[in-house]
Amino acid sequence: MRFKPTLEVLAPEDLIRIHEASLKDVVQLVGSTPVDPCDVEPNQKHLHIMYEILKHTDKPLIGNTARKHQVAQMMKMLAIVLGDDNWQENHWIGVAVNPLSPLAFTPDALETIIEYAKRNQIIFIPPAIMAGVCGPMGLLGTIVLQNSEILGGLVLTQLINPGTPVVYTAAGTVSYMKRANYNTGAPELPLIHAAGLKMGRDFYHLPTDLCVG
Questions:
Q1: Is 63 inside a domain boundary?
Q2: Is residue 2 part of a domain?
Q3: Most buried pick, 45, 65, 97, 155, via CB within 10 A?
Q4: Number of domains into which the chain is organized
């Protein structure tokens, strides 16, 4: 007897449970958008995702890029769970905000940065530059563009709230030119990341991270 393979659809809470159960040195942060909950209203997705994150994990949290009022709603949910809204004294949640390469930010990205900075929460700035599509074809040009976009986001955070924690996050790569896709397996990717991380640590003395995908 032959069995036909079936496609299992994972709900957001399934992936969050997996992340929660993983060793802490393997999965350290939980959140963002584990999957897109396309079965709920678009203007309520952020509420459903945040609810499941808060319900199923006690690891450090990563939020979502959203509009101003949506970020405020997610922060209110977090404050209810924690029983505290003393944002300035505690770092409870981070968020990864991608620039719109080259050299721009979308309105929701800017509003997310502003709302997190006002609350003194952690901001990762990973420019997902695709060399040859939304950035220079050469690796050095992509590294320079990546650095410029990170610094642009960092300056904004410090204008809003000096001392806001920012993580210098390398995320650039080259594109798969047949489809203009972000190429996570390209050999050039670690070269771009290595240069960025070195600059973030040794030149700017910032906490650093890398982001792929």
A1: no
A2: no
A3: 97
A4: 1
